[in-house]
C-alpha cells in the first residue's frame, strides 16, 4: 500500500524549474532514498512535501488525502515530520524542551490548568516529560537532557533533530542528509537507528543522502534527481549500474570508459 | 548631603518600586513582541494608555450605578482590571492582525513606522472619545484606595526618615508582582509559552513542529497587551489623573527598561524596569541636593534616557542579553 503519492510535482522559481514533473509512490513502512548531485532539487522536493514551498503544479497525497494548500503546521499534524540539512534546532532551549516542542500538538495543557497546577494538567505534563525522556533515551541523548541544544556535538544534534521529529508521532519521516558530517562510527549508529524506527515505531522513512554506502545498504527503493528531473528509480542494484545515474554524478566520460 | 540621601532612602525605595513594577510590566510587552517578531511595537505605550482609559470608564460606570459604594474597593478593582486587560488584549491582537500581519514580510523599517502610526492613531481616538464624553481629555478617576500608610522605617535605623504612601501603592505592587510571576510561569512552563519561545528562535522550524505560528503571535500580542492594559489600570489607581499622552513617555521609558535588560529577554525586562524606576525616584529625591540646586527634580527623566544611550554604546545586548557572535 502506498502511504505517500506524489504526482506531477513541479516547482518554478521565476524562470528556473527546481523540480519538474516528479512522480513517486512510497510504500508504507519502507525506506526510500532520494539521491542526486548537489543542486538537483532534493531539498526543494522535501520543502514542497512539508508545505514550506507551495508547488507550482502537481499533487501530494498522504493516505489518499491531498496536502497541497495546507500550512506547514497542518502537514505536521497530518503525520509528516522532518529533519533539516542545516541543523535547525532551537539552540537556546534545552534538549528536553526541544523534544517537548516537537510534541506540541499532542500536548493538552490549558494554561489555566498549568497555572493552578491542577492534577490533570500536572499529570499530562509529567507524562509528556517522561515520553520526551524515553525518546531521548531511544536516540541515546538521555544524559544530556538539560544541556542547551546548541552545546551538543554535531552528531548529537542530528540525533536530537530525529528525536524531535519522531516526538510528533509521524507516519512519514523525512530525513534531509542525516549522515552529513558524521564519522563512520556515528553513521553506523544512525543506520541502526533508521532501521529500528522503521520496524519498532512503524514509521515510513524518506531520506536524502550523499553517503552512497548508507543509501545502498538501507534503502528499499531509490529515486534519482538531476537538474530537478527524475532520471531514474529502482532498487539499489538497478541504480548502482544505471548509466544515466553514473553520468549525472561523474559526467559523460565515465560512462564511455566505464 | 549623605544624611539627606539616607534619610530619603525608604521613601525613594517605596516610590521607586511602584514606578519600577509599572515599567517592568510594560517593558515585558515590548520585549515579548520584539522576541517573536523583531518589531519594536511603539503602539504598546498607547495600549497601556487605553487600558487606563477603559479602566476609568468602567470605574465611572460602576460608581454612577452606585455599585462602588455597595462592594469593597478591592472587588471593584478586580472587576475593572479584568475587563480592562481583556479589552486591551483583544485590542493588541486586533492591531497585530490588521496593521502588522500584512507587513510580516516587509522590511522591518516599514512595520516600525506603522507602529508609530498606530500609536498616534490610538492617542487621537482616545482623545476624541474622551473629549466627546467629558469635554476634556484629561480625565480624573475617583480613587479607590485612599488610606495613608505611614511606614516607621526610622525605628529600624535612626538615620532613615519615615516612608509615607497611599494604600494603592500596595495594590499596585502586589498586582504587578503577581502578573510578573504568572507571566514567567506561562512562558516557561506551559505549552503555549514553550511554543512562543520556539517561534521566537526560529519561526519556520517551529511551524514544521506543528506549531501554528500565527496563533502563537496572536497569543503573544494578547498576553503582552493585556498586561500593558492592566498596568494602565494600576497607573490610574495610583496617580488618579490620566490623559491620552501618558503612554508616550512611559512607553519610551519601559522600552529603555527592555533594552537595559536585553531586549527579547523577559526576566531582563523585569529587572530593567525595577532598576529604572528606582533610579528615577532616587534622582527625583536627590538631584537638587547632589548638584547643589543646579538641577531640580524635574530633570529625573534624563536618567532613563542617559541609561538608554549608555547601554546602547557600552553593552548593546543589555544586562541579560546574549551578544550575537557572528560565525565566520
UniProtKB/TrEMBL annotation, chain A:
Report keywords, A-Z. ATP-binding, Nucleotide-binding, Transport
User: What protein name is recorded for this chain?
Assistant: ATP-binding cassette domain-containing protein
SMART domains per the UniProt record, alphabetical: AAA
Coiled-coil annotated residue ranges, if any: none
Q: Which residues form the ABC transporter domain?
A: 4-252
* Stored PROSITE patterns: ABC_TRANSPORTER_2
A cellular-component GO term for this protein = plasma membrane
Gene3D superfamilies in the cross-refs: P-loop containing nucleotide triphosphate hydrolases
Could you provide one GO biological process annotation from this protein's UniProt record? L-alanine transport
- Name any one Pfam family assigned in the record: BCA_ABC_TP_C
UniProt cross-references to SUPFAM superfamilies, sorted A to Z: P-loop containing nucleoside triphosphate hydrolases
- Which GO molecular function annotations are given, in alphabetical order? ATP binding; ATP hydrolysis activity; L-isoleucine transmembrane transporter activity; L-phenylalanine transmembrane transporter activity; L-valine transmembrane transporter activity
TrEMBL record, chain B:
Molecular functions (GO terms): L-isoleucine transmembrane transporter activity; L-leucine transmembrane transporter activity; L-phenylalanine transmembrane transporter activity; L-valine transmembrane transporter activity
Bilayer-crossing regions: 20-40, 47-68, 74-95, 107-130, 167-187, 216-239, 245-263, 270-290, 302-325
InterPro entries (UniProt xref): ABC_transp_permease (IPR001851), BCAA_transport_permease (IPR052157)
The cellular location(s) given in this protein's UniProt record come to: Cell membrane
Q: Name one GO cellular component term.
A: plasma membrane
Membrane topology per record? Multi-pass membrane protein
Could you give a single Gene Ontology term from the biological process aspect? D-alanine transmembrane transport
Keyword Nucleotide-binding carried by entry: no
Q: What is its main location?
A: membrane
Keyword annotations: Amino-acid transport, Cell inner membrane, Cell membrane, Membrane, Transmembrane, Transmembrane helix, Transport
Among PANTHER family, the record links this protein to: BRANCHED-CHAIN AMINO ACID TRANSPORT SYSTEM PERMEASE PROTEIN LIVH (PTHR11795), HIGH-AFFINITY BRANCHED-CHAIN AMINO ACID TRANSPORT SYSTEM PERMEASE PROTEIN LIVH (PTHR11795:SF371)
| UniProt similarity note | Belongs to the binding-protein-dependent transport system permease family. LivHM subfamily.
Name this polypeptide is given: Branched-chain amino acid ABC transporter permease
Amino acid at each position: 500500500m502506498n502511504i505517500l503519492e506524489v504526482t506531477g510535482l513541479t516547482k518554478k522559481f521565476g524562470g528556473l524549474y527546481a523540480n519538474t514533473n516528479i512522480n513517486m509512490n512510497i510504500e508504507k513502512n519502507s525506506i526510500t532514498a532520494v539521491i542526486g548531485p548537489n543542486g538537483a532539487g532534493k531539498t526543494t522536493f522535501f520543502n514542497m512535501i512539508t508545505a514550506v514551498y507551495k508547488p507550482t503544479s502537481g499533487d501530494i497525497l498522504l493516505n489518499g488525502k491531498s496536502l497541497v494548500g495546507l500550512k506547514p503546521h497542518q502537514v505536521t499534524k497530518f503525520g509528516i515530520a522532518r529533519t533539516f540539512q542545516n541543523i535547525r534546532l532551537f539552540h537556546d532551549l534545552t534538549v528536553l524542551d526541544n523534544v517537548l516542542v516537537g510534541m506540541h500538538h499532542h500536548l493538552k495543557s490549558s494554561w489555566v490548568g498549568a497555572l493552578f497546577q491542577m492534577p490533570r494538567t500536572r499529570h499530562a505534563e509529567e507524562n509528556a516529560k517522561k515520553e520526551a525522556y524515553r525518546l531521548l533515551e531511544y536516540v541515546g541523548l538521555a544524559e544530556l537532557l538539560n544541556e542547551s541544544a546548541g552545546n551538543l556535538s554535531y552528531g548529537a544534534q542530528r540525533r536530537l533533530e530525529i528525536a524531535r521529529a519522531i516526538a510528533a508521532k509521524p507516519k512519514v519521516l523525512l530525513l534531509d542528509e542525516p549522515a552529513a558530517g558524521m564519522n563512520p562510527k556515528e553513521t553506523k549508529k544512525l543506520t541502526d537507528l533508521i532501521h529500528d524506527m522503521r520496524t519498532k515505531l512503524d514509521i515510513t522513512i524518506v531520506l536524502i543522502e550523499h553517503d552512497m554506502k548508507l543509501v545502498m545498504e538501507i534503502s528499499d527503493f531509490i529515486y534519482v534527481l538531476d537538474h530537478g528531473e527524475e532520471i531514474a528509480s529502482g532498487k539499489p542494484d538497478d541504480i548502482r549500474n544505471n548509466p544515466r545515474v553514473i553520468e549525472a554524478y561523474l559526467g559523460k566520460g565515465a560512462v564511455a570508459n566505464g | 548631603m549623605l544624611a539627606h540621601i539616607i534619610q530619603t532612602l525608604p521613601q525613594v525605595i517605596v516610590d521607586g518600586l511602584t514606578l519600577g513594577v509599572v515599567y517592568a510590566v510594560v517593558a515585558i510587552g515590548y520585549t515579548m513582541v520584539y522576541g517573536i517578531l523583531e518589531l519594536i511595537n511603539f503602539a504598546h505605550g498607547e495600549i497601556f494608555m487605553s487600558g487606563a482609559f477603559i479602566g476609568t470608564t468602567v470605574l465611572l460606570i460602576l460608581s454612577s450605578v452606585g455599585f462602588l459604594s455597595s462592594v469593597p474597593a478591592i472587588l471593584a478593582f478586580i472587576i475593572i482590571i479584568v475587563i480592562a486587560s481583556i479589552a486591551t488584549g483583544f485590542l493588541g491582537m486586533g492591531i497585530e492582525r490588521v496593521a502588522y500581519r500584512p507587513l510580516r514580510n516587509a522590511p522591518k523599517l516599514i512595520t516600525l513606522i506603522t507602529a508609530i502610526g498606530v500609536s498616534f492613531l490610538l492617542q487621537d481616538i482616545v482623545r476624541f472619545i474622551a473629549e466627546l464624553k467629558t469635554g476634556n481629555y484629561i480625565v480624573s478617576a475617583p480613587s479607590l484606595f485612599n488610606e495613608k500608610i505611614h511606614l516607621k522605617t526610622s525605628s529600624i535605623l535612626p538615620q532613615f526618615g519615615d516612608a509615607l504612601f497611599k494604600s494603592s501603592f500596595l495594590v499596585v505592587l502586589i498586582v504587578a508582582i503577581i502578573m510578573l510571576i504568572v507571566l514567567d510561569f506561562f512562558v516557561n512552563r506551559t505549552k503555549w509559552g514553550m511554543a512562543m519561545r520556539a517561534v521566537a528562535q526560529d519561526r519556520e522550524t517551529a511551524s514544521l513542529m506543528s506549531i501554528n505560528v500565527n496563533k502563537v503571535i496572536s497569543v503573544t500580542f494578547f498576553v503582552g497587551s493585556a498586561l500593558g492594559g492592566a498596568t494602565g489600570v494600576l497607573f490610574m489607581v495610583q496617580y488618579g489623573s490620566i490623559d491620552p499622552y501618558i503612554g508616550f513617555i512611559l512607553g519610551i521609558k519601559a522600552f529603555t527598561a527592555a533594552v537595559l535588560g536585553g531586549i527579547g529577554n523577559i526576566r531582563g525586562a523585569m529587572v530593567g524596569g525595577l532598576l529604572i524606576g528606582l533610579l528615577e525616584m532616587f534622582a527625583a529625591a536627590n538631584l537638587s541636593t547632589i548638584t547643589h540646586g543646579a538641577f531640580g527634580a524635574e530633570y529625573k527623566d534624563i536618567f532613563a534616557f542617559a541609561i538608554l544611550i549608555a547601554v546602547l554604546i557600552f553593552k548593546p545586548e543589555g544586562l541579560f542579553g546574549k551578544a550575537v557572535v557572528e560565525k565566520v
